[in-house]
Amino acid sequence: MMQRKADFDIPSTLRRGCLTVVVLLGALSAARADDPLHVRIDRLIDETQIGPVAGDCTDAEFLRRVTLDLNGTIPTADEARAFLDDPSPDKRTALVDRALNRPRYARHLTTVLDVMLMERRRDTHVKSPEWHTYLHDSVVANKPFNQLAREILSADGVDDAMRPAAKFYLDRLGEPHLLTRDVGRIFFGRDMQCAQCHDHPLIDDYLQDDYYGIFAFLQRGTLFVDKKAKKSFFAETATGEAVFTSVFTAVKGETGPRLPGQLIIDDPAIPAAEAYTVKPAKDVRPVPKYSRRAALAKHATDGTNRVFNRNIANRLWAHMMGRGLVEPVDLHHPSNPPVHPELLELLADEFVAMNFDMRAFLRELALTKTYRRGFDMPAELAADSPDIESHLSRVTADHAQRAAAVAVLEKEVDTLLDGVLAAQEAMFDVESENTKAIAALAAVQKKSTAAAKTLADSKQKLSKQEQALKVLNEALTKADEVVRQFPKDAEFTAAAETYRKRVKTSTGEIAALKTLIEKQTVAAKAAAEKTVAPASAAKVAADKLAAATQQVEQLRKPYLQKLYAYRDARTLAKHREQQREHLNAIVAYRQSTEKQQALVAEIAAARNELTRVQTAALQAESEVETALAKVTTPQQRHTTALKNAQLIRAQHADKHKLARQVAEAATAGQAALAVLPEDADLKSSTGQLAELAAQLNNNLSPLTEQLKQAEAKVAEAAAVLKAAQQKLAAAQEKLQQAKQLTLDADAKLQAALQAQQTQTALVDNSFQDLTEQFAGRFATSALKPLTPEQLSWSIMQATGVVAQQSSAAVAKLDKKNPPAPPQRETLVEAKVNEKLKGNVRLFVKTFGAGGGQPQNEFFATVDQALFFTNGKKIQSWLNPAGGNLTDRLKKLKDPAACAEELYLAIFSRRPTEQEATDVVEYLQVDSETDQAAALQEIAWAMLTSAEFRFGH
């Protein structure tokens, strides 16, 4: 059943309308077709590049990168030294060519293809050595990839010469669904496993209909075990259609064989009776005249299927660049478009044009500027650039136009789909009627056939009896002749009589049988007549089904064509959306950086302000201390004056009180004297009191004056004290204000520092995101972890194990007739590989992913750490012996030379000044034994470092 979403690839007839940029760039490329592919790749990337890019990597990085990618190992120390010291301007090109012409290239690409195709599955029906030999021979012969893929997809294991190629099918046990998933992933870049039972729940464009389009090529296959030959083969039948039902919607669907991006491939019209070259039977491997699987191999690899072409171009690009233009490489769909759609089209077209030549294709990739990019982000990333804003505006406008075009196409697709669905539903109804008509016809045909068989059996029996009667009559005639000649011979007479009786019996049986045949003839005729109507009805139903099926196909073809155009438009719209997001991320990073820089200036100003107010606070505090000191003396003087005035006031009060009392006594005496004027004593006492009161009043006046003066001094001291206190209060208020300003300035500084910390985190996160985006867009080089095979060979190369085995192989060859250099290198490589492949298997077991799983994800485990820490294998390689790395280093007397040899052998570069100093210091030990241990420790640390574990 057709669905509303399907794969997004476009037939070439429709690509023009949706790939405007591709067409324009294609025309531009055609005008410059004489340029090598790597030049056109660089030009295309430069023309479509967004933002700055990283510069060229160093010579050391390039050397290590090329050797790992093309030979699967690091270079030797001598090779590194020679390359780094080579002043030739074209040494990088020469390095690529040398790597491609070494035997290690074929060995490494064999491993790459093996891992890609078999994903480290365990052997079941084809042994790995046979398979590896087949792949290795193919690479050595530079077999075109499409030929290799065609051989693998069509191999059944019958031809001994091509049996290894059948490993892809046989070691997957010929299971159609597993094969469908892996063929879709590995050869077409679509992991549609989740579309087996329903449309993919996460990827809108992976549909059950697409899944069964591939399944239809493979569902007729099965694993056939030949018990006599004790071998397994891949067998096929001539029947079986891809019918499926969604477990979500319960809607039934059916499709013929269909490759991603193409229409259904019709089976040739072959009568059912002629469908097999070898018919199915017990213990017999069937061979159909037409093989859908062979059709899969043919149509996928003939250069016309763009999905197949793009997939392998993308995988080889990923092998060299560390990630695909579509990443993950097995998830091609509109929501995950290529980061450079035009580039992927160019690569796919050119790979086909160069006849799928992997060696030539990898060479072109290795010569690009993209491959040479460094790992570090471009320094000008944060620089303001009006080009970015202008580019963003153009991309935004283009995305809006494409989104609008997608909406229009979607409506057109939905309209066409409605017609397909309606026609398909009608077809299913007619199919049901046809099934019933066939069943009804089969029922009456069964009776007619039975009646016809009964009649035929009777006729055959009659024929046999008539033939027997004829023989009996002949025998009777001859017997009668003998009796006439020997009438008295009783035996002859008895024999003749026996024949006569048997003739009579047989004649009666024949007569009865003829009567029965007459009745059976009538019955058979009647049964045959009963099939006429059902046969007619069945023919009508079959014609209706054929017409309904034809109607579906007529509607389905324009629908698929429009759908592919819609998917392509969506792909490019999504690509523009991602470009816009990338540009926005650059702009946001620059704005964040500018804000970060503004915060730095703000923090500097806040620090200056805090320093200023802190200085002012210190000044105010000094003024308070000065004012406080100036208050002390007036305070003391005021206190003294106040005490003196209080003393005088007390004295004055006492004397004033006494004078008042004396005066009051004198007044009382005068009153008494008025009553007793003659009382001389009273008169004398009163006079004395009056004199005393006058005297006391006279004595009080100076004290009063003294009191006035004391109080005046108190007032004067109070005024001076008040003035000093006012100055102190003013200074204290000034100090309080300065302290508050200090607190405010410090709070402002802390807020700015916190804002800077937050902004720095935002900038760091933004930078990290941009780092991933730049690597994903190939503006910087991606960080590639070494595969288990690369890691094992590189460690053996660095420690000198490879050199030891090579020397042994050379010595063995030289004992006989030494071969010529090219053949010699090939033979040596083969012998070294044979000797060391067990070590490689050990690394694969420890560092490889599980069998049947994608093998391109980096992961670290405790087992890996223990392998390096406690594993005796690597430790043994580091024990000085037989001219290995540590043995060579021991013989170097200069520690600086040791440092250089270490770094060239392990990191393929010379050490920095600091690194050389660190090595020299570490080697300052007392004895040769300690020095050997130190060399082993340094080498072990370098081999287990992140720099060695990754291709950097």
Automatic annotation (TrEMBL):
Domain DUF1553: 292-388
Keyword Coiled coil: yes
UniProt name for this protein: Uncharacterized protein
Organism domain of life: Bacteria
Stored Pfam families: PSCyt2, PSD1
Keyword Coiled coil recorded: yes
Coiled-coil residue spans: 455-482, 589-623, 693-748
Keyword list, A-Z: Coiled coil
Residue ranges constituting the DUF1549 domain according to the UniProt record: 53-220
